[in-house]
Task: structure prediction
Amino acid sequence: MCLYFKSLRSGSSGNCLMLWTDETRILIDCGIAAQRRTRDILEEHAGSPSEIDAVIVSHAHTDHIRYDTLRVFEDHGVPVYCHKDCLPQIFDKHSVEKCPDLRFRTFAERRFRVKDFVIEPVRVSHHPYFLTHGFVIHSKTDGRDRKIVVATDFNDYDGLVSHFADADFIFVEANYDPDLLRQNPNPNSDYHMENSGTGCLLSRALGKSRSLPVAVMLGHLSEERNSGPIALATIRRVLSRQNIPLDFPLYVAPRYEASPTISIA
Result:
């Protein structure tokens, strides 16, 4: 069985990640503005919104889930998973009362299954009023357990290193560069990871790993306070200082288009 990942959109203008096997296709977040655009993007990359088996929501911010996308999932009968304590925030923020046929399913802190995927929610530190989770996702391919880690929208990696260790693929936030932040101040940056912090998280996790990942992709870059070249250079510099070999591809997720497809197994 093959296992693939693709970022469909990444950044404060909208986030949507897709992970799939031959039998199962899930989205992690979908904060794309406008129903038509959502349908077009999913038709281009998934064949049809109805091909999605589940949408897993990290938190209630509009760049991760919004009324437009909830309407699309309602129309196609796609179940939307969120933490039980996040559900009231989604109802308050996204006019869910206008989607009477939407299929919500809640999770707590324990693992849950969506067909080929076993998903472990991991709470991360983000905005104090919005409960936020990253996800450790397991899937068995060719008799081996594959581990995928997805975490964006956090500002502190304390307690996260062990979750990232021994991952086969990592998608992680590298939101801003401190010099660019000083030039373009934004108080919301306090809730996100700066590039060198992401580099430290990766170096500590990879230093504890028995093998290196197939690839790492940096996501949720600020449009005004970061750039792909700056993020990549910073991460590479931190890894080099810690003697972590860069024997794997390091990607940046595009903001307004899809990333390359990553073959994990």
Summary: The first helix runs from residue 35 to 46. The chain has one domain: 3-263. The helical segments are 35-46, 67-75, 87-93, 161-164, 178-183, 195-207, 228-241.
